[in-house]
C-alpha cells in the first residue's frame, strides 16, 4: 500500500463530530503527520448542523459527503454501505476509522472489512447489555470486526477480552469526548446569554439555578405513554427548578404526533430548538442538575462534576455511575422526583473524574496509529 494512502475518518451523527474533533488534529500534527480524509455520511444532516458544528469544533470541511439522510435502520445502513463502497475504491485507504455506535459506524466498518481494509474503532467495549437498543448491536458488531480498538475505560478493555478479542488489538486511551470538552469549554457562552437568545430577550428566571434536559432515545420518545409521563414529570419538576429542554428533532416529531404540545408549555419549562455544541457547554457547566438519556451527557457531567439523572434503566457507560456523578433513575416518576429532590436538597452524589479522562486521549490514539500505520502498512 502506498505511503500516501489516507486513513478515512468517518462521522455520521452529532456525537461523532465531537469525538472526531479530538482525533483529527493529533493525527495531522507534525513532524510525522498521518494523511487523513474526513467522510461525512450525512446520517445527521442539514446546512445549519454543518456550518455550526464543523466551525465550532474547528473541523475541516468533509472531503466526501454521502448525503444519506434519514430512514429506517435497515434502509439507512444499506444506503451508507452502497455510497461508501465507491469511496473506498476511489480513495484506496490504508484504514478506516469509525467512532461511537451509530448506524454509520457499523455500516462503514462492515463495508471496509469486507474489502480487506483494516478498521479502527474509537470508543470500543462499551456495553449496556440491552440488545433492544440499536446502538448496542452496532457496538457489538463493530468491535468484533475491528483491527484496532480504543477504549475509554478499563472495564471496556476487560469486556472486550471477555468477548474473545485479542489483547494486542485493544488499547486503553481515555475519552476523546472529554478532550473536546476541555478544549472548547473556555469558549462556551454564559448561560444568561444563551437563554436571552432563546427567549428573544424576554425575562426567564434563573435566580436559583436551572436544570438541563435532553431526550431522544426511541424507548423514551417513540411510545406516547412513556413520553407523556416523562413530560408530565418534567413539568412538575420545573415548578421546583427551571428546566431548559433543547428538543431533539426526533423528540419534537414524537411530541407533535402524540398531541403532547401542551405539556411543553408548563411554566418553568423552556423548550427550545436544538442548540450548538458551545451553547450546550455553556448551559451544562452551570447547571444544578442534568436529566437525560444521552450517553455523551453522562460522560460530560461526570467530567465536570455535575449531578446527572439518567432517564434509563441501564447505561453503556457504567463508570459514570461507579466513579462519576451519574444516577440511573429510569422513567418512573417517583424515582425521578426522589432523586431530583435529593440533589436539590443535598447537592447530589460526589464523583471523581475517571482515569485518563484528561484531555489527551486523541494524542494517545494518534501515537499508536502513527506507529502502526505511519510506514504505509495496513
Topology, element by element:
Layout: E1 7-11, H1 14-28, E2 36-40, H2 47-57, E3 64-65, H3 73-91, E4 95-99, H4 103-114, E5 119-124, H5 134-145, E6 148-151, H6 154-162, E7 170-172, H7 176-184, H8 191-199, E8 211-214, H9 218-221, H10 224-240, E9 243-246, H11 249-258, E10 269-272, H12 277-286, E11 289-292, H13 295-304, E12 308-310, H14 319-322, E13 326-328, H15 333-346, H16 361-373
Parallel strand pairs: 1-2, 1-4, 2-3, 4-5, 5-6, 6-7, 8-9, 8-11, 9-10, 11-12, 12-13
CATH superfamily of the largest domain: Glycogen Phosphorylase B
Q: Major beta sheet, specifics?
A: 7 strands, parallel
How many helices does DSSP assign? 16
CATH architecture group name of the largest domain: 3-Layer(aba) Sandwich
Detailed description of the structure:
This protein is of the alpha/beta class. It has 2 domains: 7-175 and 357-373, Glycogen Phosphorylase B (Rossmann fold, 3-Layer(aba) Sandwich); 189-346, Rossmann fold. Helix content is 47%, strand content 14%. It has 16 helices and 13 strands. A 7-stranded parallel β-sheet has the order 3-2-1-4-5-6-7, sandwiched between helices. The chain has a 6-stranded parallel β-sheet with strand order 10-9-8-11-12-13, sandwiched between helices. Helix 1 packs parallel to helix 2, helix 1 (14-28) crosses helix 16 and helix 4 (103-114) runs parallel beside helix 5.
Summarize the structure.
Helices cover 47% and strands 14% of the residues. It has 378 residues and is an alpha/beta fold. The strands form 2 sheets. A 7-stranded parallel sheet has the order 3-2-1-4-5-6-7, with helices on both faces. Strands 10-9-8-11-12-13 form a 6-stranded parallel sheet, with helices on both faces.
Amino acid at each position: 500500500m502506498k505511503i500516501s494512502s489516507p486513513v478515512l475518518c468517518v462521522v455520521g451523527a452529532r456525537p461523532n463530530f465531537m469525538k472526531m474533533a479530538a482525533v483529527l488534529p493529533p493525527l495531522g500534527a507534525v513532524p510525522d503527520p498521518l494523511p487523513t480524509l474526513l467522510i461525512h455520511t450525512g446520517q445527521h444532516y442539514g446546512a445549519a448542523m454543518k456550518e455550526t458544528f464543523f466551525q465550532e469544533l474547528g473541523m475541516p470541511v468533509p472531503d466526501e459527503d454521502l448525503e444519506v439522510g434519514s430512514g429506517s435502520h435497515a434502509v439507512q445502513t444499506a444506503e451508507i454501505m452502497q455510497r461508501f463502497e465507491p469511496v473506498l475504491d476511489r480513495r484506496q485507504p490504508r484504514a478506516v476509522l469509525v467512532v461511537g455506535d451509530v448506524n454509520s459506524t457499523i455500516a462503514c466498518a462492515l463495508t471496509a472489512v469486507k474489502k480487506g481494509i483494516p478498521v479502527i474503532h474509537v470508543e470500543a467495549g462499551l456495553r449496556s447489555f440491552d440488545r433492544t437498543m440499536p446502538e448496542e448491536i452496532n457496538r457489538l458488531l463493530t468491535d468484533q470486526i475491528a483491527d484496532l480498538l480504543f477504549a475509554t475505560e478499563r472495564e471496556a478493555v476487560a469486556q472486550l477480552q471477555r468477548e474473545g478479542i485479542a489483547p494486542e488489538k485493544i488499547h486503553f486511551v481515555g475519552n476523546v469526548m472529554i478532550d473536546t470538552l476541555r478544549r472548547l469549554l473556555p469558549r462556551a457562552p454564559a448561560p444568561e446569554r444563551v437563554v436571552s437568545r432563546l427567549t428573544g430577550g424576554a425575562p426567564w428566571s434563573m435566580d436559583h439555578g436551572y436544570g438541563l434536559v435532553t431526550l431522544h432515545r426511541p424507548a423514551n420518545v417513540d411510545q406516547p405513554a412513556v413520553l407523556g409521563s416523562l413530560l408530565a414529570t418534567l413539568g412538575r419538576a420545573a415548578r421546583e427548578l427551571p428546566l431548559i429542554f433543547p428538543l431533539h428533532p426526533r423528540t419534537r416529531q414524537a411530541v407533535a404526533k402524540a398531541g403532547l404540545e401542551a405539556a411543553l408549555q408548563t411554566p418553568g419549562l423552556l423548550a427550545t430548538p436544538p442548540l450548538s455544541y458551545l451553547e450546550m457547554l455553556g448551559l451544562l457547566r452551570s447547571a444544578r442538575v442534568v436529566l437525560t438519556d444521552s450517553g455523551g451527557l453522562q460522560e460530560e457531567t461526570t467530567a465536570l462534576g455535575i449531578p446527572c439523572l439518567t432517564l434509563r434503566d441501564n447505561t453503556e457507560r457504567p463508570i459514570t455511575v461507579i466513579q462519576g456523578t451519574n444516577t440511573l433513575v429510569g422513567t418512573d416518576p417517583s424515582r425521578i422526583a426522589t432523586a431530583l429532590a435529593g440533589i436539590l436538597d443535598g447537592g447530589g452524589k460526589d464523583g471523581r473524574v475517571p482515569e485518563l479522562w484528561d484531555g489527551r486521549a486523541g494524542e494517545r490514539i494518534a501515537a499508536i496509529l502513527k506507529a502502526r500505520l505511519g510506514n504505509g502498512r495496513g
